[in-house]
TrEMBL record:
The lineage of its organism: Bacteria, Pseudomonadati, Pseudomonadota, Gammaproteobacteria, Nevskiales. This is Cu2+-exporting ATPase. It comes from Hydrocarboniphaga daqingensis. The keyword Phosphoprotein applies. GO terms for molecular function: ATP binding; ATP hydrolysis activity; copper ion binding; P-type divalent copper transporter activity. It is a multi-pass membrane protein.
């Protein structure tokens, strides 16, 4: 680990600005992920090694990170990273994304605001308690002093802690819209100003306790809601940091140069040392490799990849020797970047139930303002002080905070729980639609099977050798992303296929040495083994070879389907493969309803037929030919190894290799819908009950603040229950076996 690695690429633009930023004191700041730290002595070694070069060294053993602050004239980033490497650790710069840094700073500031409101609010409540328990027994001079103390402590709570609420309300007023912060700010300002007037005139009541309690409980609910949202965004931050910022590119003479990973091009060969992440999607050139794809797929055990197979950007070389990878996709074209875009889109997406709740909240806001004015008018004959308290109580107690938090808090917590189970949520509406499905349709190749196929039978025609036929098939499938192509990845043909194009649900065609070639699916003949996928290699209209390919069932396929069946769902297979191959998989998995030899249009027609008959369909597929069916299904799921088109049409993305995550996703969706309904029902009942009580004068301002705050906290706390695993036991079966 202490070898002199080349860190110099981080000393110049654009990488220096990508991994560090100018701090508030003028020096640079950088965040590093450090691999190999285990105890406090490791922390001490790093601090000692950097003490002479850095003004600030903050080591976090729990997160395995080091935050540095230094003067640019005193050291360069490469020197700091080499100092850490000399201690026996491996430093890894983290992309210094401004949006992540700003979000983290805002969460820290909100926590500080909550803390100040809580500490000062408790002091104000203790001073105000005498108003409700010992009225008339305290000397006027002492009571006046206590009121001034309440004013002194409530002012920073309103001005500093409550500033985000006031700022948003001001923006809403300028935009001429009724956000929920408008009545909140109006109540806070009215209570504060009225208390100040009464304090100066030494008459009536002060409401500083209501102000501080209102601010504290409201900010506390928002902090909990933000915490749930941060957990959901954690997956995006992890993925963003998975792709290394530099790459070791192999030159033509065999030497290696360290470059910015954004400078990689299609066809470049990169060298990936042990414990280093692959910088771009590519085809493995080394004979065999173990790669850690846990961040992408959730699988803890390293995956074994052979020469010719694809490795994804962000996967880590878990072996003991360096790997050689030929780049096939870079930057935004990588599978990792595509997943990041899907997650970002999901976090920006507002489901219909949330949009309806927000519209209702806006109407409630208008109703609250009208009710407050009506209450003041109704109680004015009794006395201005009573009328003011009623108006204040109505404004506070009926704030629609709980209603606005009911859905987003639950969706954020559910998204975090799904991610930990190996499922990424790309469209939040799926969580509400999934509990209503009754039929699950599976594609076979690449979905129920692993997508890694093996050629177990070659039957060349007279005049052709098996090797020549395999080379022609491999040339046709060289750049095709389909499970069938994996059966020929171990071949390195000297011939090249031109003008290659896919044939929907059939195969590929192209030209080799001016001959028209096709590799298309077919049915087994009488003397050929059933249960295999058979392909015909056709040259100028004549079949010159037949290939028999075997499948391997995906891990957890049998257990996952049995668990879904136990939930009352009916499994169906819709496949374009041969009838014998589909029947073998269906029999192995205990599925009685299956269709074979389907074209994309046939799959779509069958799905439409199921929906017309009243079924709600959950479609799970991975190929380009599955995209129309995924788009038409009530709920759709694709795999992380699937095509980009299939993932674009999917509402859920399965990142783990095991299908046992599917029933867990179904159960999380059931819990999510139940909790959203509970939250909405609680918010609605609370507001319906609170308005009459406040108008009747039965709720004081401090009690209104307590009720509103508790209702918001209850909604968020109920939503955060989704972050707790269900601990439900799924069906278990014997290990899944290979088909054929």
């Amino acid at each position: 680990m202490g070898d002199k690695l080349d860190w110099s690429a981080y000393d110049a633009a654009p990488l220096i600005d990508q991994v560090s930023h100018i701090g508030g004191s003028g020096g640079r700041e950088m965040l590093l992920r450090v691999h190999g730290m285990h105890c406090s002595s490791c922390v001490g070694r790093i601090e000692q090694a950097l003490a002479s070069r850095c003004r600030r060294v903050q080591v976090n053993l729990g997160t395995g990170s080091v935050e540095l602050g230094w003067d640019e004239a005193a050291a360069r980033p490469s020197e700091l990273m080499q100092a850490i490497a000399d201690c026996g650790f491996r430093p890894e710069p983290i992309d210094d994304r401004p949006d992540i840094r700003i979000a983290q700073r805002e969460r820290r500031q909100l926590l500080i605001r909550v803390g100040i409101a809580g500490v000062l609010g408790m002091q104000v409540m203790m001073l105000a308690a005498t108003r409700y328990t010992e009225s008339g027994t305290i000397e006027p001079a002492m009571e006046l002093t206590m009121r001034y103390a309440q004013w002194a402590m409530s002012t920073p709570v309103l001005v500093y802690s409550g500033w985000p609420i006031l700022r948003q309300a001001l923006a809403d007023v300028r935009a001429r819209r009724f956000g929920m912060d408008v009545p909140i700010s109006l109540a806070l300002l009215l209570a504060y100003v009225a208390s100040g007037v009464n304090l100066l005139l030494q008459r009536g009541h002060v409401y500083y306790d209501s102000v501080t309690m209102f601010v504290f409980l409201l900010l506390l609910a928002r902090w909990f809601e933000g915490r749930g949202r941060a957990l959901a965004q954690q997956r995006l931050r992890e993925l963003a940091g998975a792709q290394p910022l530099t790459a070791s590119r192999e030159r033509g003479d065999g030497s290696v140069e360290q470059i910015d990973s954004k400078q990689l091009c299609h066809g470049d060969i990169v060298v990936v040392p042990p414990a280093v992440a692959v910088p771009a999607d590519g085809r493995l050139l080394s004979h065999c490799a173990e790669v850690d794809e846990s961040l992408l797929t959730g699988e803890a055990d390293p995956a074994v990849r052979c020469a010719g197979e694809m490795v994804m950007a962000g996967s880590i070389n878990a072996g003991s020797s360096a790997l050689r990878v030929q780049v096939t996709a870079v930057c935004t074209a990588t599978q990792l970047s595509h997943i990041q875009r899907l997650i970002h889109h999901a976090q920006q997406y507002r489901p219909q139930v949330q949009q309806r709740a927000d519209r209702i909240a806006r109407w409630i806001t208008v109703t609250v303002l009208a009710s407050a004015i009506a209450g003041a008018i109704l109680w004015w004959p009794t006395g201005p002080d009573v009328a003011f308290e009623v108006m204040l109580a109505v404004l506070v107690v009926t704030c629609p905070c709980a209603l606005s938090l009911a859905t987003p808090a639950a969706l954020a917590a559910a998204g975090s729980s799904l991610a930990s189970s190996g499922v990424l949520l790309t469209r939040a509406d799926a969580l509400l639609q999934l509990p209503r499905v009754d039929t699950v349709c599976f594609d076979k190749t690449g979905t129920l099977t692993t997508g890694q196929m093996r050629c177990v039978s070659v039957q060349p025609a007279d005049g052709y050798s098996a090797d020549d036929c395999l080379d022609m098939a491999a040339a046709l499938e060289r750049d095709i992303q389909h499970p069938v192509a994996t059966a020929f990845r171990d071949r390195q043909p000297m011939i090249k296929a031109d003008r290659v194009e896919t044939l929907a649900a059939r195969g590929v065609r192209g030209w080799i040495n001016n001959a028209s070639m096709q590799l298309i699916s077919s049915e087994p003949r009488d003397h050929q083994a059933g249960g295999l996928t058979w392909l015909d290699l056709i040259r100028d209209g004549r079949c010159i070879a037949r290939f028999g390919l075997s499948h391997q069932l995906r891990p957890g396929a049998r257990a996952g389907i049995e668990a879904l069946r136990a939930e009352g769902l009916r499994p169906v297979i819709l496949s374009g493969d041969s009838a014998s191959a589909v029947a073998t998989v269906a029999e192995t998995l205990g599925i009685t309803d299956y269709r074979a030899a389907l074209k994309p249009g046939d799959k779509l027609a069958l799905l439409r037929r199921l929906q017309t008959a009243g079924s709600r369909v959950w479609m799970i597929g991975d190929g380009i030919n599955d995209a129309p069916t995924l788009a038409a299904a009530d709920v759709s799921t694709s795999l992380v190894s699937g095509s980009a088109l299939a993932q674009t049409h999917a509402a859920l993305l399965l990142t783990t290799a095991s299908l046992s995550a599917l029933p867990e996703a179904y159960r999380i969706a059931q819990r999510t819908r139940r909790i959203i309904r509970q939250n909405l029902a609680w918010a609605a009942l609370y507001n319906v009950a609170a308005i009459p009580l406040a108008l009747a004068g039965s709720v004081t301002p401090w009690l209104a603040a307590l009720g509103m705050g508790i209702s918001s906290v209850v909604v968020v706390a109920n939503a955060l229950r989704l972050s707790v695993p269900s601990h439900r036991v799924t069906a278990t079966t014997s290990p899944d076996l290979a088909c054929a």
